Amino acid sequence: MGSKSQEQKPKLKHKKGLWSPEEDQRLRSYIVKHGHGCWSTVPINAGLQRNGKSCRLRWINYLRPGLKRGLFSSHEEDTILALHRHLGNKWSQISQHLPGRTDNEIKNHWHSYLKKKVLKENASSTPPETTPHSEIQRYCSSSSITDHYSSPSPDKPTLIPASHFRENSPPPSTADQWDPQIFNNGHHHENGPRPALPKLMFAEWLSLDSFAATSAAPLVGCSNTKGFAGGSADFGPDVSGVFGGDNNNGLFHAYPLFHQGTSGGQNSMTTTVSDGSASDVFSSQFSFDDQSSAADANNYQFVEFCSDFQLSGNDVMYI
DNA sequence: AATATCATCAACCGCGAACAC
DNA sequence: GGTGTTCGCGGTTGATGATAT
């Protein structure tokens, strides 16, 4: 057992410490071209004097596309606090609820700032239920669907754990089956025009590790432990992609499509949800600003679409 | 200006789980 | 079933910059 295997290969001296820009470039280029596959072979093939573990960490925490850098918003902090109260130090699980944030980043932020904040709050004996993030705790701990569906505020999306559908009833498979309580804040629309549909997204989409590579479009990562089977992706100059949803455990098909035009300007991501037939489909569109930080590695561009998502109280996010 | 202390964050380490043989 | 390998997670460390004395 253990992680000694890589290190003990005939005393190959692995470099440690901070990564240089050249090393970053080598690693990024290699993974963009070939995917990471087996991490232990990545440094060998990429010509790096690092061990696979170090490469994996560097990719996950720093080079992976879609990472959000910078200060944590108050909403993110609230989410961390609420989830930490429920999950404890499960940084990896917490990070799944914060698109673009890594577990390491969240862990650091906790130890450097949030932990003290909590201690201070406890010292002043503020009841946890009065904190603004109690709604997040509610969906974590409650078994009531009505609790899940109640939108916490006009400015915040409704968050629904995917486990709800596994534990209760299957999710709606068509647009018409969606509970208006969720999508229209309780307002039915019998015969009139369908109200503006909410943005719909899964946190998993925000992890590019969920994307499956195709021969035409070698892409990073291929695995998803929850069985989210990918479709195809093309990160060429015209960034576009189609991703199949989970069809094995009762969840409906969901195909996020995104496309970045060559003319520049604003990018968009269209999310289409269907029951598998072409006849009953609805879609919503995300917008995200052109990110100047989009990497250009060997003519592949990354869409940093996590950075500027703004979900509102009319939106639903499956976590 | 020099030094000490604190805060932040990238990276390392060790462990356990999952998997392959 | 036993052993080795790989991966992912969480705790911890150490370098660096900011701030206080």
Outline the structure in words.
Residues 119-138, 144-191 are annotated as: Disordered. InterPro entries: Homeodomain-like_sf (IPR009057), Myb_dom (IPR017930), Plant_SW-associated_TFs (IPR051953), SANT/Myb (IPR001005). GO terms for molecular function: DNA binding. Keywords: Activator, DNA-binding, Nucleus, Repeat, Transcription, Transcription regulation. Pfam families: Myb_DNA-binding. This protein has 319 residues and is of the alpha+beta class. It has three domains: 7-63, Homeodomain-like (Arc Repressor Mutant, subunit A, Orthogonal Bundle), CATH 1.10.10; 67-141, Homeodomain-like (Arc Repressor Mutant, subunit A, Orthogonal Bundle); 200-318, no CATH class. It has helices spanning 4-7, 21-34, 42-46, 52-63, 74-87, 91-95, 103-123, 134-141, 145-149, 163-167, 180-183; strands at residues 158-160, 200-202, 232-234, 239-242, 253-260, 267-274, 281-288, 296-297, 300-301, 316-318. It has a five-stranded antiparallel β-sheet, with no helix packed on it. A three-stranded parallel β-sheet has the order 1-10-2, with no helix packed on it. Strand 8 (296-297) and strand 9 form a beta hairpin. Helix 5 (74-87) packs parallel to helix 8 (134-141). The structure holds a DNA duplex (21 and 21 nucleotides).
